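[agent] plan:
  1. take the single chain provided in the ticket
  2. run structure prediction with default settings
  3. attach structure tokens to the ticket
  4. add a short note for the reviewer (M.T.)
[agent] executing step 1
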Amino acid sequence: MRHSIRRGLVAASALVVASLALSACSGGGDEPSSSGDSEDFTPLTSLKLQLQWLPQAQFAGYYVALEKGYFEEEGFDDVEIVPSGGDIVPQDALVAGDVDFAVAWVPKVLGTLEAQGVELTDIAQVFQKSGTTQVSWKDSGIEAVEDFEGKRIGSWGFGNEWEIFAAMADKGLDSTTVSITTQDFSMNALLDGDVDAAQAMTYNELAQLLETENPETGELYTMDDINVISYEDTAGAMLQDAIWADTKRLADDPAYADAAVRFLKAVTKGWVYARDNAEEAADITYTAATAPGVQAFPVGPVHQLWQMNEVNKLIWTGGDFGVVDSGAWDKTVAGALAAKNQDGLNLITEEPASSAYSNEYIEKALAELKEEGITVDGDYTPIEVTLTKGGQ
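[agent] step 2 finished; step 3 output follows
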């Protein structure tokens, strides 16, 4: 048995912002046919999963599945989790055939589908809510999306800016008045005054700010020092971490379709364990993030626990794990179609093919897990996490 994590990641500080020509969104729901029930194939026993970012609790379920042997239980004896530090675009790696499955945000992939004319399928919607926020100082006067016009709004790029523009479009705001300022993957842009409002994930950059000492008080910053605008509360909310598969391969290769179901069973068990054992799951991810040769950022154990807690909130929202909610999908598509960036360019021009998502594989995986007595639905009960300086 060989389970591995690819090494040699580029440092976050060395990332080069890639300009993605996002286009094409939305979709149908016609389920692509699966040949996974056929027995005229040799089951796959190895696979590669491409992550969207560096090892961190955002991906805890996959690392837990690796650590706990869930992939092996589903017939895989060789599983490689491939991180990215911005040097690999997950959907591009999947299209190229370098990996078998990929984790990526929905609007980014939908843009790729239209721009490149390729076909990929969202086979499991891991995050059911958006974790993106815009953070400003309490005295900035930026308390809502309506306050964005004429301001320096921070974003990481890589397609992460589209929630900003979708939210602005819903309010009838002029996106060309906004100065989108590229920020790094810390909160330095806000701390240094380079932006008026910084982009921050609830599970990562927001915590980074709250792990920073306020030089005026000698204490850590608190929520009382900032305004937090959550895109989940706006029309700009878009579906984020999803598991993507090769559409044509699903239809044409019964071994791959079969592997998709078994893979989703293992992944679901990993996320269930992370839900019920947040502290241990955070520890498992911390170990992966601090392994020799891995240049993850940030990697503090307390930071990982905070992240695990917040990520669980985005995943476990009452329904079955990983099922694509058609309403949330349609909202993502509508926001993407309406969005225009600071140059007045549309994000997407047409809805994606109906094959852009399918619940067929996750529903089959969940049905089998339910028969095994595993609880694959429900809400998450948050734990209390007290942040420390640097997340250490």
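[agent] step 4 note for reviewer: Residues 2-129+238-391 form a domain with the D-Maltodextrin-Binding Protein; domain 2 fold (CATH 3.40.190.10).
[agent] ticket updated
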